[in-house]
Amino acid sequence: MNPSPPRLQPCHPHVLSTKQTDTGWVLHLCVPEDLFYLEGHFPQSPIVAGVCQLKWVIDYIEMHTGKPLVIKAMEAVKFHRPLLPRQFFAIDLSYEPPTTTWHYRVYAPDQQFASGRLIVQP
Question: Which residues of 3-13 are buried (b: 16+ CB within 10 A; e: fewer)?
């Protein structure tokens, strides 16, 4: 009898919907309870690390633009409150061509989790 292969844990939130806007995208998401990045962070009260949220922002920009992001600088990067397992949230991505800046916000209707700006190569 063959043992079943190990189950891979997700590294990204579940995408519930995506909407293109005039300047970018808004994604509605949910943090999976078995998210890989929750392991060891912290066992009694797991939270999604801020660096993980920033990785998702970059990944979704690259996914929707179809090209790698070359970041020249990060500005006003803030992690306002913890993002938790099973949390429903949205990521708002908005591009400003004159300054080659991506503005991002990770939020729910009643709270903000992260925000900032990524200055990129055109």
Answer: eeeeeeeeebb
pTM confidence score: 0.91
Rg (C-alpha) for the chain, rounded Å, is: 16
Cis geometry, peptide bond prior to residue 113 (ω within 30 degrees of 0): no
In the 8-state DSSP scheme, what is residue 62? H
Residue closest to 19 by CA, chosen among 118, 110, 94, 113: 94
Q: In what order do the strands lie in the sheet with 14-20?
A: 14-20, 24-30, 88-96, 101-108, 111-120, 71-79
Single-letter amino acid code for the residue at 109: P
pLDDT digits (tens, 9 = 90+) for 42-68: 888 999 999 999 999 999 999 999 999
Residue 101 has pLDDT above 80, yes or no: yes
